[in-house]
């Protein structure tokens, strides 16, 4: 789940040109409460109260899915033809689906800041557990990610600052490496963490990564 937060309203309004069409996202932005039906409707009201014309609102299942955004553009062509700006209430990936699906003459404004990939602990709590490093070490660390859960991203921990099993950066937080150790003991995989981990190969995390699959979905 991509976690986002709404941008400052005055910053959004400053970027809007002419009338607006609002796109929301029906998955991550619903959970983040930044661009589901409720937030899109609230944004419509806010903009109308500021005398900004809103030509339509459309919640797209998943704005990161380019084909779904293209379909929404086709389905809403009348409203979109009157709008000079599309306000996208989705993660940055979704915003750029709108950029790709719309003519270059349409200004696409992002209404949210994209924060992180979060695990849903419950509907009020999301936690970052993987930072998408592209070179996963979970098989060597008892299934707990030191890259994300240790503030220093240490691969051979714990560091010298660990105190009473807590992290020196935040004493309310368990040291990730203590958790890795405890889990490795229970799983009898201590040998894995006794080996010195080599520096991570961040070259696999290329900018603007993409992947193509061969064959079709089953
Ligand atoms: S090592 Fe951590 S950040 Fe990297 S892919 Fe695995 S879980 Fe994600
Ligand atoms: S105390 Fe543990 S979690 Fe905190 S920075 Fe050091 S190794 Fe990482």
Write the layout of secondary structure elements.
Layout: E1 2-6, H1 9-15, E2 20-25, H2 28-31, H3 37-49, E3 54-60, H4 66-75, H5 77-82, E4 85-89, H6 92-101, E5 107-110, E6 112-122, E7 125-128, H7 146-149, H8 176-187, H9 190-194
Parallel strand pairs: 2-3, 2-4, 4-5
Antiparallel strand pairs: 1-6, 6-7
Helix pairs in contact: 4-6
The structure holds iron/sulfur cluster (2 copies).
What does this structure look like?
Helix content is 33%, strand content 19%. With 218 residues, it is an alpha/beta fold. It has two domains: 2-116, Response regulator (Rossmann fold, 3-Layer(aba) Sandwich); 133-200, no CATH class. The strands form two sheets. It has a four-stranded parallel β-sheet with strand order 3-2-4-5, sandwiched between helices. It has a three-stranded antiparallel β-sheet with strand order 1-6-7. The longest helix has 13 residues, at 37-49. The radius of gyration is 22 Å and the shape is elongated. The mean pLDDT is 95.
């Amino acid at each position: 789940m991509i976690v986002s937060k709404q941008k400052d309203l005055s910053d959004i309004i400053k970027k809007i040109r002419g009338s607006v069409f609002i796109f929301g996202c029906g998955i991550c932005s619903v959970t983040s409460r930044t661009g589901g039906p409720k937030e899109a409707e609230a944004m419509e009201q806010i903009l109308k109260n500021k005398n900004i014309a809103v030509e339509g609102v459309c919640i797209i299942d998943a704005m990161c899915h380019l084909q779904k955004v293209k379909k929404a553009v086709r389905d809403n062509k009348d409203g979109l033809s009157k709008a000079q700006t599309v306000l996208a209430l989705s993660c940055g990936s979704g915003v750029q689906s709108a950029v790709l699906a719309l003519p270059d003459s349409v200004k696409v404004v992002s209404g949210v800041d994209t924060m992180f990939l979060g695990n849903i602990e419950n509907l009020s709590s999301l936690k970052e557990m993987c930072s998408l490093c592209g070179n996963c070490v979970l098989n060597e660390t008892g299934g707990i990610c030191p890259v994300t859960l240790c503030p220093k991203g240490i691969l051979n921990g714990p560091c010298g600052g660990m105190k009473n099993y807590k992290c020196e950066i935040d004493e309310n937080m368990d040291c990730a490496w203590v958790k890795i150790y405890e889990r490795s003991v229970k799983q009898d995989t201590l040998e894995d963490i006794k080996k010195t981990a080599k520096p991570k190969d961040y070259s696999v995390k290329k900018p603007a990564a993409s992947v193509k699959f061969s064959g079709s979905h089953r």
